[in-house]
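Troubleshooting: if your tokenizer reports a length mismatch, compare your output against this known-good record of 243 residues.
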Amino acid sequence: MSLVDLLWIAGCIAFASFAQSLSGFGFSLLAVPLMTLVVSPRDAVVVATVIGALSTTSQAFLDRAHVDVAIAKRLTMASFLGMPFGLTAFVLVSETGLRVVLGVVVLVSAVMLLRGFQLHDEKHRLDWLLGIVSGFLSTSTSTNGPPLVFVMQARRIDPTVFRATINTVFSLVNIVAVAMFVAAGKVNTNNLNGVLVAIPALFVALKIGYYFRKHITSERFRFLVIFLMFLSAGSVIVSAFTN
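Known-good structure output:
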């Protein structure tokens, strides 16, 4: 990678990290399509997953007092079930079709939330189903947020609990995903250079994001989440046809 490429990656990570620190999600959905303008999609996925593990683990630790443990356990275990299938797709399948489907699903989910959809699922079947889908997306595209965001936002969870819980799930899933990428031989010098240059940008962006959190009310938070879902859907669909 050239110096310009590395600086672009750092900028992408800073932008995505700031957005994610405010909303609790959206890091890979924003970072991966932007990074693929200068690096291969597979390198972008690896960089986003490694940096995402650092970001979400940091935030999960800082916000640990607000985690809904029951929801976090269900979504994490379900995600683990889907991850091996996602890794298989990452190694064998073209990403274009997968990204188009993901973008359309995110777009439909955002419209449903905008129209006031609420989830009443006392047996938590949807938690398990969307958790498995999230795990699949984690190791195939590094964009595992939308299924979790949909199921949690549809329950109208408090923003503080939302961020803490979803980052806890992301943290555990990302750590396992990194280990799987290493085992599959997908971590190399090229994408590690991207990781190293992105780390300072990550922590600066998180610090700024935490400062601005206090100005976001519950209603603003809801519209921020929906806005990021629309933005993410467009970003993923565009990246599918440009890479």
